[in-house]
Amino acid sequence: MSSTFTMPSILFRAKGILFSIPSTNAQSIIQMPEVTEIPDTPDSIRGIIKHRDEIYNLIDFRKKLAFQTLQEELSEFKSMIDQREKDHINWLKELEDSVHDDRPFNLTTDPHKCAFGKWYDTFKTDNFFINDVLVKFDEPHKTIHSIAQKIEVLKKSNNFDEAHHLIKETREQELSQMKILFAKIKETIQQHSSERVILFNNSNSKFAIAVDQIESVEEIKKIETKDANDQFLDFGNQNFILGLGEDKNKNLVILVSDELLN
Asked: Which domains does the chain have, with CATH numbers?
């Protein structure tokens, strides 16, 4: 059962999870500035930043929860996209070699079963700009895979010249489109994964926390933990986690203490 206790809080996301922190001691919210690394500091301290001639220790909130950093996640994403691009370059090359050697083509012809297709069918985002790029993959990706069956028909009729021409045409058109889109999706994900920094000045110190994105500033209603799914209770061993709350849209929020976080 929900209590009537409310407090003004800053709602933010880290790895897709909603958190809130009291806005009482928050000074401002800024884009990520230049960070100066400091040796021999805890893993969760990314370094120091400067804002309006004030120095702040910068806490990486993801690291506080032993999550992968956003930078690491983006690097992995880019590597994955690079590999999916190579997959399709190699797929078309293998199809070409199967024509040249007059042998069966054994790679998948189903666009939903290649590694990119499996990722593409399951990846979800609310970001309009990312979705705008993603939707453009559909036609060229399906077209690339669809030519395998056409090639097999041409091989059986000994029409190898036309088979080579179709592969060359697909490489110059659909595969080229895919390469452009692979570059665009990496660029778009990077542009829309810009961290925000919340600056605090509490009774103990000045510090800042790096978060994935800011959602809103609003009152959060505290709720009993028994009303939540077990997945939200995994953070209970962190002393800066106060419990659970509910935002105005009835989303579960993990409550963070600014006094205990630093």
From this structure: 6-67+195-261 (2.40.50.180), 71-191 (1.20.120.30)
